[in-house]
Amino acid sequence: MKAAPFEYVRPSSLLEACSILADDEDALPIAGGQTLVPMLAMRLARPTILVDILRLPELTGIGRANGFLILGATTRQVEAERSALVASDLPLLAKALPWVGHQPTRNRGTVGGSVANADPSAEIPLVAATLGARIVIQSREEEKVLPADDFFLGAMSTALEPGFCVKELRFPVWPKGRLGVGFHEISARKSDFAYASAAVQLAADDDDKCLNIVLGLGGLSDRPVRISLDSIIGKDLRATSLPAIVAEAVGDACDGFDLRSDIHASASYRRRLAISLAQRAMRDAIDGALQGGGEAQ
Description:
Blueprint: E1 7-9, H1 14-23, E2 27-30, H2 36-41, E3 49-52, E4 62-65, E5 68-72, H3 77-82, H4 84-89, H5 91-96, H6 103-108, H7 111-117, H8 123-131, E6 134-138, E7 143-147, H9 148-151, E8 152-154, E9 157-158, E10 165-172, E11 178-186, E12 196-204, E13 210-218, E14 225-227, H10 242-254, H11 267-290
Parallel strand pairs: 1-3, 2-3
Antiparallel strand pairs: 4-5, 5-10, 6-7, 6-10, 8-9, 11-12, 12-13, 13-14
Helix pairs in contact: 10-11
């Protein structure tokens, strides 16, 4: 099919782009277009105006400030994947990025676009939720900083209001300890949408005890979820009881929300996957930390 007719504009500033979006509720921003362009072709999206934000200088770049690693919204996924700064400061994101789509889509797709799309199976939103990232959104009147938990409202649903667009992603950089990360997902084919996924990042002290740990699960419900593993903090990472603790925590969490069930995977299958994938990701994170990990700066 062909897209329905629309106007195309390329504003010169972020405020100009936000003004266009505010003045026409049927206008849509476009950057990488890896989701929007197919939707246009199938006429699932019918914007009156496409606002090209890809080249806006306010939305580009990777940098570090005030304890956060900051990714501009239009940063290509491949740029983040190849970034030495992401590898050192955000090892969990670096671990997850090769699972995002296919190489050609990562060459075009943007990190902000993935977050704004809010697919419950997507890897970048999962890492954002797991690490407690902050999503910065901009309108012509104001800038807002939203925790990931407040930004993701449901499947393909976010707290973005008319006239706002995603400006940047701020990921907290862990300040101390040897880091270990793990990321696993299951799909019909590599790079297809995940039936379930698990992301773990932990820090160990010099005595191989857990200083901090986060676990996130994706693909299970209408948004990525973070599971508390506070009971592991302070424990020896070589303890044989840790996989059982993870399994119990994930199982209890899955019992507390509605698991997705569709033609691809039943809710009970996703629950089993979540437990297994979380344990695998945990083992990888422990191995990485015990082997020295990487010092967060």
